[in-house]
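LAB NOTEBOOK - FOLDING QUEUE
OPERATOR: T.R.
BATCH SIZE: 2
PURPOSE: Compare the predicted structure-token outputs for two unrelated chains run back to back under identical settings.
PRIORITY: normal
REVIEWER: second-year student, initials M.K.

ITEM 1
FIELD SEQUENCE / FIELD STRUCTURE:
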Amino acid sequence: MAAITAALIKQVREETGAGMMDVKKALTEADGDVARAKEIIRTKGIAAAGKREGRKAQEGTIASTVIDSANGQTGYAIELNSETDFVAKTPKFVDFADTVLANAVKANADDIDSVLAAPSAEGTVKEDVEEAAALFGEHVKVGQFAKIEGPKVEIYAHKKSAELPPSIVAMIATDEAGSQVAHEAALQISAMDPKWLTRDDVPADIVETERRVATEKSLAEGKPEKIVPKIVEGRLNAFFKENVLLEQAYVKDPSKTIGDLFKEVGGQALAFARLEVGKAPEADA
């Protein structure tokens, strides 16, 4: 049998646009004959994944899980994108997302790069995702990834409708006591999309920008200069209440904050993450 070299695979991929695994299989079947391999690819109707890569993949699902770990529990969530919700809601696509997540967990992945590099049954997650374009007939990609750890991790997966897979996943890590209100906090994260856990977590440059905008706005409104600092602080506090989880008003009882919920049970929130389909920073990529 002729050797199936990387150069040979690259040549056929470039000439057909087919995925790596499809090219390998075709070359193996053709005993290394490039022309025959190309015929096999055409005969089987293998989609040209490369031609799809310019298409937007902003639909999809989010797979998530919690596993026991040395320090308590670890929560994982991964977004897998497709072009349409028609594909996203198929059991095969949902199962594929679960497989990608399982491979990421097994590899103890920490970020998108380590997810894509994670070993899979056929090679790597990156190769599997490339091959998925032929399987689903659409551009498929890994979007966002999150991993949090703590004594306890709670996950809430939100569906926009019963027939669609989860489109928002909220995860929160707490101590043991905090786990009593973790579900309520996860619901809050899903609904209100906080950006930071505490005000100390807000980057200094963002605080400074908000302070400057509030100052300029107050002066433009004709407020007396001597009371502008007080108005600015009020507007900064409003910014924190909107964007900081522990300072947000609890949606089920606005008379208390999420921070109050944790105080009532003597617990702590340690970290959180929120993924929403199509909201990755480079969602069009």
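ITEM 2
FIELD SEQUENCE / FIELD STRUCTURE:
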Amino acid sequence: MIAGNEPGMFWGIGVGPGPAGYLPLAAMQALQKADLIYVPRARSADTSVALQCLEGVAVAPERLREVEFNMDPDRNVLREHYAQLAQDIAAELQAGRSVAYLTIGDTLTYSTYGYILAALKDLLPVFPHRTFPGITSYASAAAALDWPLGVGKERTLILPCPDDPASLQHEIETHDIVVLMKVGARLPWVLALLKEMGIAEHCAFARRIGLDGEVLANDLRELEAGDRDHAVSGYLATMLIRKTALEKRHQA
């Protein structure tokens, strides 16, 4: 640490996903105080979705530090990437600068922030930090679609999409509701499975909520996946799967 400097504050902040303004007031105050704001961007994307979720919030460009992420399947490559990023952030904190790290959705729900925080704790066993909870993609999707995530004693499973239809079908059959995340390129067979099971009309789909290219669907029977202009992609998407129709308890 540079002599005379107290370590800087580190904040983890979830932004979006959804319309502008999905940001807790306390997190907004921290964002305004931060000397530096680390903003993740997928290598395949031209702009950072996290930054897009801050639309309407004035942030001086010189405070931004864009971080390019390549979600390489090689865990060693990812490990090196997170370790290097944590070292960069730790150096800023040790120099007395406050740092905010943005992530899409909730900070600790299937988020890169969890890896960064763990790596920072290894480098700096004691440092001032605070993590703000954010809005999960499935909570945002449910709100956009008026889709209850659980009624009465229904059991809800939050699940990264399995790699095969049989595994997903088993989870659907053993739970009342399945929140399916990280769908990606698996979307075509997921849609086919739901239609084959006869439950597509009870399921919902949300992609790029509040952003350009938003897709919201409360009935998946007509939804198509693929590369054609009228088809949708499974990236930045969340699927809400209900095994049976929603019970209308207000009716006799």
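REVIEWER COMMENT (ITEM 2): Strands lie at 10-15, 36-42, 64-69, 99-104, 129-131, 156-160, 177-181, 204-207, 215-217, 237-242.
FOLLOW-UP: none requested
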